[in-house]
Automatic annotation (TrEMBL):
Catalyzes the interconversion of 2-phosphoglycerate and 3-phosphoglycerate. This is 2,3-bisphosphoglycerate-dependent phosphoglycerate mutase. GO terms for molecular function: phosphoglycerate mutase activity. It comes from Enterococcus hermanniensis. Its EC number is 5.4.2.11.
Length: 253
């Protein structure tokens, strides 16, 4: 009886919350890929390397916030990675939309895909060395890993204090999109999906590949078709969701 009563109470709270926000409000999820970074500008593989936004990226993030304000989207919670370029993008979006007070949760599970030993290398020079086809496979295939970084290598996340609380086995030496999804999915299931099911409007400010991985899950995109999905920097991607979190509508602002 206690469990039933608790469920009825929780359902009532959720319904009251939805009524407060407005009748028939669908769960809304907004993805924002961080603005142009310093290494994006230099055409370098970035991954888990913690680089800052380029000036153009700052403006992209601010413009995204202004578009969100113009669209009248009001967030209840924001999620981002533990990498500077995504955190700053999140902050600029919230500031420009007059929502800097919104609670923000940071998680390594929303980090960019780890590019292993490719991190820091120039993409054009890498293609000249290994061939365009090989670099395309490393960049865009769903389940092919890049050359892996050792925990003792310079620039390894194993040496970074922000990951010191993790089991060393959880710190990657390199990832493909499949592994990125496997890493991000628990955070979706434990944090983001429950917030959406509670009727909250959610911002996820993250990275090209972590957002592609989540989009694959949300939209049911095949392993083959996900290779063609590109999420532009600085353009908010909005999902209007059904109560079961299937996609009712998808559009860019």
């Amino acid at each position: 009886m206690e469990i039933i009563a608790k469920k009825l109470y929780n359902d009532s709270v959720i319904e009251n919350f939805r009524n407060f926000k407005g009748e028939n409000i669908m769960p809304k999820l907004v993805f924002s890929r961080h603005g142009l970074s310093e290494w994006n500008k230099l055409n370098q593989f970035t991954g888990w390397a913690d680089v800052d936004l380029a000036p153009e990226g700052v403006e992209e993030a601010k413009e995204g916030g202004r578009k969100i304000k113009e669209a009248g989207i009001e967030f209840d919670v924001a999620y981002t990675s533990v990498l500077t370029r995504a955190i700053k993008t999140c902050n600029y979006i919230l500031e420009e939309s007059d929502q800097l007070w919104v609670p923000t949760v940071k998680s390594w599970r929303l980090n960019e895909r780890h590019y292993g030993k490719l991190q820091g290398l120039n993409k054009k020079e890498t293609a000249e060395k290994y061939g365009d086809d090989q670099v395309h496979i490393w960049r865009r295939s769903y389940d092919v890993l890049p050359p892996l970084m050792e925990a003792t290598d310079e620039g390894s996340a194993a040496q970074d204090r922000r990951y010191s609380m993790l089991d060393p086995r959880d710190i990657p030496g390199g990832e493909n999109l499949k592994v990125t999804l496997e890493r991000a999915l628990p955070f979706w299931q434990d944090e983001i999906a429950p917030a959406l099911k509670d009727g909250k409007t959610v911002l996820v400010a993250a990275h090209g590949n972590s957002l592609r991985a989540l989009a694959k899950h949300i939209e049911g995109i095949s392993d083959e078709d996900i290779m063609d999905l590109e999420i532009p920097t600085g353009q908010p991607l909005v999902y209007d969701l059904n109560d079961d979190l299937t996609v009712a509508k998808k559009y860019y602002l």
